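Hi V.,

Quick status before I head out on leave. The structure for the redesign project is tokenized and pasted below; the design run finished overnight.
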């Protein structure tokens, strides 16, 4: 009885660990894709083109002197996130790239 219970908990731990790892891995894959895509965005690019490259941002932050800053997910070891800042004309005026 004790041996069967022990094996059940080992199997359950393995199953939960595998599921958690897959979820973590999927999020990291998307984050690395954001890093690669961000190098195709440049200053002066219009908002529609930048969004076509990068996709939907993780969050949108208002700016004081500009339109909006779009923040994208980065790998877990990143020092800085990927931020794309748009001016009032809808053009990219600053791109903060991934920094490891």
């Amino acid at each position: 009885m004790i041996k069967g219970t022990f094996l059940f908990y080992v199997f359950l731990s393995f199953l939960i660990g595998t599921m958690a790892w897959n979820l973590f891995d999927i999020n990291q894959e998307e984050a690395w894709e954001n890093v690669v895509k961000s190098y195709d965005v440049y200053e002066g690019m219009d908002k529609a083109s930048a969004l076509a490259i990068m996709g939907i941002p993780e969050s949108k932050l208002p700016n004081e002197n500009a339109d909006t800053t779009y923040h994208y997910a980065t790998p877990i070891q990143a020092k800085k996130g990927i931020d794309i800042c748009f001016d009032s004309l809808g053009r990219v005026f600053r791109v903060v790239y991934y920094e490891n």
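Above is the designed sequence. Residues 16 and 22 are 10 Å apart (CA to CA).

G. will cover questions while I'm gone.

Best,
W.
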